[in-house]
UniProtKB/TrEMBL annotation:
This is Peptidase M24 domain-containing protein. GO terms for molecular function: metal ion binding; metalloaminopeptidase activity. InterPro entries: Creatin/AminoP/Spt16_N, Creatinase/aminopeptidase-like, Creatinase_N, Pept_M24, Pept_M24B, Peptidase_M24_C, Peptidase_M24B_aminopep-P_CS, X-Pro_aminopeptidase_P. SUPFAM superfamilies: Creatinase/aminopeptidase, Creatinase/prolidase N-terminal domain. Belongs to the peptidase M24B family. PANTHER family: XAA-PRO AMINOPEPTIDASE 1. Residues 311-522 form the Peptidase M24 domain. Coiled coil: none annotated. It comes from the Bacteria. GO terms for biological process: proteolysis. It comes from Prevotella histicola F0411.
Length: 592
């Protein structure tokens, strides 16, 4: 692999020289600004060897560097070892930005040229980069991977399927009408939709073009009098084709979107610059552009009653699978022969037994001891290690069910622990509980409540660099915006009906990691003279390991929360369990 990466860099640099380009930037995204992308667009992974979901590679004629966030610092360092890539730890004070680094490396050139593929970078990002790197000329119409990636996978052609009203809860016609009302109120008559989960939600369709994400490669152009769906027609079975006809949605070739927006006949076309790629935005006449926020992410984030009930049903089945797994775990580890991969396989198999299971919602993270400190660790045959009856194993997993998407993390003690492990575990649990108990005004944002999960850790000098919570799709992407709970400023408001995770963690490199995660639903709390207040309903149903807890560190309120949660878990799940599983759950949820 290491030699292959160098060979790829050599071929790429030859193309760069031929095109007169001094630096080329490879993001992690696709033409739809997806977090997770189809194999065809994994160019950053192909050119660097780093396979994390977030990162940007920059290659100059003499240097190479890769930026990624704290979730991947350890994994990236391992995967880049032996290559010429320099790891840039994003958001740390001493790490130069991409534009700063490029400016430094190209300072010897009188007229430096920077290449980017304008189809896989958003308009907002490229405009910012062009402004920061005003010493360089940018070329935005080149995809060198089309030349140097000889065995590049094709764009997926998997079939699209209907997502019935039984699970969607709102007809496509209703969603289109709401979008059109928004457009009228914002002085636009059209909307270009490029985000794949937004298209799937709007049309009540699902696909399998992206691993773990039930979406399909396409574009959508909504105007006041038409809806155009840009997609490879091979992907449309007869029932989907007939459905689109009934919904007055016309089908156009996927590649035709550029010409259609160039020749847009309406007055004003709304495009979200943080979502739509640079080439599509710049193809539209400036007099016809409105750059603004798409209404769909917020509409999609607020789940209707059918979707909320679907989440509860999915979490029930997921909880049954989790209890079966947890009851099996310790005896299996004590018997020997278990590894990180075998734990992953067993948990996935138990989920697959549940009705409406459609697959996992992300690649399962099973990190034993030191691997638990690698935030987005994924075991491979090369890294897989035996799991033994001592220490901590961190398991972050989830499933796609036809009525909901799940995301849960549990850290489990497999035997004897150090005092440090117990203390860190209890601090993470305190943060998890405190956020779950939070009450906040309607419209507050996640950045305003993030500190609630961190306060106990901060008091003892601990912190974690990832977000505390993200939205979860309704049989859609496991990571869903626009709202988040994190330290960085994210102004998207929180409203009743939104799902969000609660997942604080602490990671001690080379030792162990702890994360505890439930998925929550935001619901009304009360109305006071100061306005409407909201609270969380915990959707996830699975016991939290009590054996590592230092009980004296929990407040009476936190202890009450934990006992009440475990009582609910037992009462809800026990009727569906076998006798031995029910007995295990009774012990696991025994009040402290």
């Amino acid at each position: 692999m290491k030699q292959t990466i160098q060979e790829r860099l050599t071929v790429l640099r030859q193309v760069m020289k031929e095109q007169g380009i001094h630096a080329f930037i490879f993001p992690s995204s696709d033409p739809h600004n997806s977090e997770y992308v189809a194999e065809h667009w994994k160019g950053r992974e192909w050119i660097s060897g780093f396979n994390g979901s977030a990162g940007t590679a920059v290659v100059t004629l003499k240097h190479a560097a890769l930026w990624t966030d704290s979730r991947y610092f350890i994994a990236a360092a391992e995967q880049l070892a032996g290559t010429e890539y320099l790891l840039m730890k994003d958001r740390l004070p001493d790490t130069p930005s991409i534009s700063e680094w490029i400016a430094q490396k190209l300072s010897d050139y009188e007229s430096p040229v920077v290449g980017v593929d304008g189809t896989v970078n958003t308009y907002a990002y490229l405009c910012e980069l062009i402004n920061e790197l005003n010493i360089a000329t940018f070329v935005t119409n080149l995809d060198p991977l089309a030349t140097v990636w000889n065995d590049r996978p094709s764009i997926p052609k998997d079939k699209i399927v209907l997502h019935s009203l039984e699970y969607a809860g709102e007809p496509t016609t209703s969603k289109i009408n709401r979008i059109r009302e928004y457009l009228q109120a914002h002085h636009a008559d059209g909307l270009l939709v490029t985000a794949l989960d937004e298209i799937a939600w709007t049309l009540n369709l699902r696909g399998k073009d992206v691993h773990c994400n039930p979406v399909f490669v396409s574009y959508l152009l909504i105007s006041q009098d038409s809806v155009m769906f840009f997609v490879n027609e091979e992907k449309l079975p007869d029932d989907v084709r007939n459905y689109l006809l009934e919904e007055a949605v016309s089908v156009e070739p996927y590649e035709a979107v550029l010409d259609k927006v160039k020749g847009y006949k309406g007055r004003k076309l709304l495009m979200d610059p943080t979502s739509v790629n640079y080439n599509l935005v710049t193809a539209v006449d400036k007099t016809k552009r409105i750059l603004g926020v798409s209404p769909i992410p917020m509409m999609k984030a607020v789940k209707n009653k059918t979707e909320q009930d679907g989440f509860r049903a999915a979490m029930l089945r997921d909880g049954i699978a989790m209890v079966k797994f947890l009851a099996w775990l310790k005896p299996a580890v004590e018997a020997g022969g278990q590894t990180e991969i075998t734990l992953d396989e067993h948990l996935t198999a138990l989920r697959a037994e549940q009705p409406l299971f459609k697959g996992i919602s992300f690649d399962t993270i099973v990190g034993y001891e030191a691997h638990g400190a690698i935030v987005h660790y994924e075991a491979t045959p090369e890294t897989d290690i035996p799991v033994k009856p001592y220490g901590l194993v961190l398991i972050d997993s989830g499933a796609q069910y036809q009525d909901g998407t799940t995301d849960i993390t549990r850290t489990i003690a497999l035997g004897s622990l150090t005092e440090e492990q117990r203390r860190v575990y209890t601090l993470v649990l305190k943060g998890h509980i405190q956020l779950d108990m939070c009450r906040f005004p309607d419209g507050a944002c996640g950045s305003q409540i993030d500190a609630i999960a961190r306060e106990s850790m901060w008091r003892e000098g601990y912190n974690y660099m990832h977000g505390t919570g993200h939205g979860v799709g309704s049989y859609l992407n496991v990571h869903e915006g626009p709202h988040q709970i994190r330290m960085e400023w994210k102004p998207a408001p929180l409203h009743a009906g939104m799902t969000v995770t609660d997942e604080p963690g602490l990671y001690l490199e080379g030792k162990f990691g702890v994360r505890i995660e439930n998925t929550l639903l935001i619901v009304p709390s009360e109305t006071t003279p100061f306005g409407k207040f909201l609270k969380f309903e915990t959707l996830t149903l699975a016991p939290i390991d009590t054996t590592p807890i230092i009980q004296d560190m929990l407040t009476p309120e936190e202890l009450t929360w934990l006992n009440n949660y475990h009582h609910r878990v037992y009462e809800t799940l026990s009727p569906y369990l076998e006798k031995n599983e029910k007995k295990w759950l009774e012990e696991a949820t025994r009040p402290l």
